[in-house]
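Our consortium's second objective concerns turning raw sequence data into structural hypotheses that experimental partners can test. To show how far this objective has progressed, the report includes one record in full. It was chosen at random from the queue rather than selected for favorable results. The single chain below, 534 residues long, was entered without modification.
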Amino acid sequence: MKRIIIIFILIYCSLGVLAALEVDKEELSEGLSQRVEFYNYQGPHSKIETRDQILGIGRFLGQEYTGVAGEKSYHGKYRIIHAIDRTILELLDADILVLENSAEVDHINNIRLILAGYLMEAYSYSMADALLLAEFITYYNAVFRGDLDYFSLKYKGIVLQHLSRENAGISARYTDWPGKSRLLIPLSEKAPEGGLGTLVTDELTDERVIEDLRSQEGMGLVPRKEITELKEREVEEAIERIEEDRERIVQQEREIEEERQEITAAREEIQQRREEMKASGGSMEEQAELAVQEKELLEREEELEQREEALEEREEVIAQEKTILEEEQQKQEERQERILQEREQIARDERTVIEETPAPKEQPTATAITPAAETVRDKVYFLHIADIAGEPLGQLLLLDSRSGKVLGTSSVNTIRNRSFQLLEDAVVVLAGRTEMGRAVRLVLLNPATLNIIQEGETDIFKDSVIAAKGVNIFAVVKQDSAWHVGLFDKDLSLVAVSAIPVDPYTSFTLSGDWLYVQNSQGDVVRLSQSSLQP
């Protein structure tokens, strides 16, 4: 039994399988069978961290990782738990990214950046591979959110003890992330650590995923080509590794044969020496000397027997390695066939896209009559409201006035007070939240596309009404611990503040050159629209 164990250890060591824990990509790809749409915070922030800063959070969490159970925290906001139990061979270990109560992340892309930074630092993944894996991790954890029955079938007890139905995985809504999300990174003992071929891209391109891509505009040709090219490179590298292992095995077999020849020669030498000893005979002193020599020959024979047994063990290891390499060779040949089929399908879809693409329209001649250009006046704005963590927050929709069809949606989904104001060349809204590094500020939207033109830099009272006239915009701002009316220009720069404090919940009425408001004592007063003086 001990000999068998040694053989299997040699097999795994020789093939480089006993490496550090790495992400189990096959388990991650399970999440692709369902569509997940993340609802992120879209609004102003009081501070904005760069991409490198967010990656740095993950890199910090991945520093000095030794592959053993433990945990590491980033300023009490994010934590990695290494849930690893080497005494259990079945089921999966995991790293768990914990979003603590004070976590300020509110966009799924930033969670992915943290995960990517961690994978790069802890497991030496390339940036591209880490970002791809991070995307899979978030989908996987959203699909199986709170499903302890599923997780209990996949993970070891050391993993499950850190989870509950309330925090396992990640919610699709950012408001449920802090304190309620623990993202599992399934681990397995496989090599190599990161790099091309670490991710099981055959699972990534599951038939369901490809069909989803084919249903999109352009049939998803660009990403499908890219992943197919990646798989081709994976196969090339895998075959190169197989050939290198085969060359190594051939060299080992030569060494074994050479050593076996040495053993044979040594045994022949022993046999010849014994024949010489038999013919010598002699006195008692000579017999005693022959006895000593016989003992030495016996010891040498025992040593040769041990060397022979070791060679047999090495041959068994090599036989196992050959079997593994043949299986891997067959696997890669099958992959090549599937890749060829994918290439053929891509080529067919390319022809379909070309056939379905309408021919370019002829440019109108100088005498042609052209229809009137469609303008924003042909559109209707509607503020769609949703309850987000107890607050009624809005997203502006652009509708076709004739059909009612939605033509566009603002990326900003935190518009406050169920209102917006139309300017000459923009739509102004008050958007944002006040917790977790966010801010409530004025935002300008393009009236035709609802894309953000500009964000203000002045914090606004979260329940302030806003009013606009010409290029002037009015909102309630804080100054010297009191609330005042702020006058903003078309670029959202604060140009004036009312001389008197006002009730932060005041309404605004514009009449003539005056702005009517409610002061801090509750009295209605009027202010100059141009200077905000009484």
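The partners drew two points from this record. DSSP finds eleven helices and 19 strands in the chain. The chain has a mean pLDDT of 81. Both points have been shared with the crystallography group to help prioritize constructs.
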